[in-house]
Write a structure and sequence with these properties.
The chain contains two helices and three strands; from the N terminus they run ββαβα. The protein is α+β, with helices and mostly antiparallel strands. The longest helix is centred in the middle third of the chain and has 12 residues.
């Protein structure tokens, strides 16, 4: 799934029997909410568990994260 608003997010998606778990890093709450919205929009999805971490704007982790090349 390609969403320009989500390019800066690093999300790992796992599924089992229609249940989705979202883990990874996002820059803000809106990105986390968008990830859940997209996952729930898939017809075969029965449930979504969100375990995303919002990166602080000034954190070193965010700076390293943003320097990574796009996947």
């Amino acid at each position: 799934y390609e969403d320009p608003k989500m390019r800066s997010a690093a999300i790992n998606i796992t599924t089992h029997s229609g249940h989705v778990v979202l883990r990874g890093l996002v820059l803000n709450r809106k990105q986390a909410e968008r990830a859940v919205e997209v996952a729930r929009s898939v017809p075969s999805v029965k449930g979504v568990r969100e375990e995303l971490v919002i990166i602080n704007r000034t954190s070193d982790a965010k700076k390293r994260f943003l320097k990574q090349p796009p996947r």
